[in-house]
Design goal:
Elements lengths: L1 E8 L4 E8 H11 L4 E8 L2 E8 L2 E5 L5 E2 L11
Length: 79
């Protein structure tokens, strides 16, 4: 089952609804208590991939709720 979360979308300047799996929701809620914020969700072939940030640090949470603190993702504008 999916859960909708309201996040601020900076590019659009308004709120948008994104879908996280239940496992991602549980992981995000635990990490949010530790200061992590949901940055964006990227759709992949395996399902949604949540990208969280805390300062300069990035973390990804896959569709089954596993967090990676050394993500192999490419961001636009970052070298």
């Amino acid at each position: 089952m999916e859960t909708a979360i309201q996040v601020e979308v900076e590019r659009r300047g308004s709120s948008a609804e994104v879908r996280l799996t239940k496992a991602q929701q549980v992981s995000f809620e635990a990490m949010h208590k530790l200061g992590w914020d949901l940055w964006f969700v990227r759709m992949t072939q395996r399902g949604p991939l949540a990208v969280l940030c805390r300062g300069e640090a990035l973390c990804t949470v896959d569709h089954i709720g596993n967090a990676s603190f050394t993500p192999a993702i490419s961001l636009r504008g970052k070298n």
